[in-house]
Automatic annotation (TrEMBL):
Gene3D superfamilies: Medium-chain alcohol dehydrogenases, catalytic domain, NAD(P)-binding Rossmann-like Domain. GO terms for cellular component: cytoplasm. Its EC number is 1.3.1.48, 1.3.1.74. GO terms for biological process: prostaglandin metabolic process. This is Prostaglandin reductase 1. Its main location: cytoplasm. It catalyses: dodecanal + NADP(+) = (2E)-dodecenal + NADPH + H(+); decanal + NADP(+) = (2E)-decenal + NADPH + H(+); leukotriene B4 + NADP(+) = 12-oxo-leukotriene B4 + NADPH + H(+); octanal + NADP(+) = (2E)-octenal + NADPH + H(+). The keyword Lipid metabolism applies.
């Protein structure tokens, strides 16, 4: 068996030497346990965001699709494909499948994929799909005819949010980092408009693309782009704060409010941050709510079922950026953090 061990805390963009690929000998399985072999592994932004809380020396976090290859647990028979939710970056895992202390399932059988690829369980029919489904519908509560803006629009979560917004009859503006991604969003996913956030005329283009203002904003990125969007919002608009990837690899931004203690410009930074979105939030009476997708664990399979239904009806399109080889996990991870993926980034063992 092989696994990646967290060696050194990330500073800025992760470096290959921060993780170490090691061999390990696994013990024989005991009663109630099973051994699973990884088939697909996921690389996700949360791995970067949560890294500061991970103990050094631990196996690096992540979920995978795996096949049960040995079993002394009748709920996980040999040959079954499962989602190993907290297995981490490892080729082989021994598990008893029991929930963790936080009540999260560590592994579950993949519900009948009905002909769809098993890897979808790491994307549209898994955590990112549910993030889009619940995080958008429950928090933004979109109404037909409204204008929806989504950032990180060509990624795993954002591309699904925009399509669900279209299903709900909204006008959708997607924001992402390349013209090629924009073409995919508009031509294939039928987003109404696309803006590249790297465009120097972003603010002007945002105004032109949202003549009726913005009713719902699904925020995957945070930072200056989000501030500009929030300042375009209509009265009683709703903001679903999903992530802030624009700051994950940036030491200063990631610290957020600690900017307050800047020794010299202390006061300047305080007023800048405090005023960036609060004026719009108050004057337009906006509702801004953060969430973690596990809030909806009790409805987990409802989200998967609905997204699967939409795929089968041709209403939800889905794309993956696949990296081959367990040895390329790190490359796939850093590539994703820098926008190398369109749709869900995964690794095929
Ligand atoms: P994506 O598939 O969207 O991949 C990450 C993307 O982020 C890249 O492709 C890149 O696209 C974009 N990106 C990188 N740097 C920047 C930057 N500086 N500014 C703007 N965009 C940037 O990942 P996911 O769909 O898995 O995750 C999207 C967001 O959702 C993340 O913030 C993540 O943390 C969050 N999330 C939150 C969950 C929750 O429970 N709250 C659950 C799952 C995800 P581009 O080319 O456009 O720059």
């Amino acid at each position: 068996a092989r696994k990646y061990v967290f060696q050194k805390q990330f500073e800025g963009l992760p470096k290959e030497t921060d993780l170490k690929l090691v061999e390990e000998e696994l013990p024989p399985i005991k009663d109630g346990e099973f051994l699973a072999e990884a088939v697909f592994l996921s690389v996700d932004p949360y791995m970067r965001a949560y890294a500061p809380q991970l103990p050094l020396g631990s196996t690096f976090i992540g979920s995978q699709v795996a096949k049960v290859i040995e079993s002394k647990n009748s709920s996980f028979p040999v040959g079954q494909y499962i989602v190993g939710n907290s297995f981490g970056w490892r080729t082989h895992t021994i598990s008893d499948g029991k929930p963790t202390q936080a009540g999260q399932l560590t592994a579950w059988l993949i519900p009948d994929p009905e002909g769809l690829p098993l890897s979808y369980s790491l994307g549209v029919l898994g955590m990112p799909g549910n993030t889009a489904y619940f995080g958008f519908l429950e928090i933004c509560r979109p109404k037909s005819g409204e204008t929806v803006v989504v950032t990180g629009a060509a990624g795993a979560v954002g591309s699904i949010v925009g399509q669900i917004a279209k299903i709900k009859g909204c006008t959708v503006i997607g924001i992402a980092g390349s013209e090629e991604k924009g073409k995919w969003l508009v031509d294939e996913l039928k987003f109404d408009r696309f803006i590249n956030y790297k465009d120097k005329d972003f603010e002007k283009k945002l105004k032109a693309a949202t003549p009726k203002g913005v009713d719902c904003y699904f925020d995957n990125v945070g930072g200056e782009i989000s501030t500009q969007i929030i300042n375009r919002m209509n009265k009683f608009g709703r903001i679903s704060v999903c992530g802030s990837i624009s700051g994950y690899n940036d030491k200063e931004k990631a610290r957020g409010m600690r900017f307050w203690w800047h020794p010299v410009q202390n006061y300047y930074f305080f007023t800048f941050l405090a005023g960036a979105v609060q004026f719009a939030v108050v004057s337009q009476q906006l509702k801004m709510e953060g969430f973690i997708v596990h809030r909806w664990l009790d409805r987990w399979f409802e989200g998967i079922k609905q997204n699967k239904q939409w795929i089968k009806e041709g209403k939800l399109k889905y794309r993956e950026s696949v990296t081959e080889g367990f040895d390329n996990m790190f490359k796939a991870f850093v590539d994703m953090l820098q926008g190398g993926n369109t749709g869900k980034a995964i690794v095929k063992v």
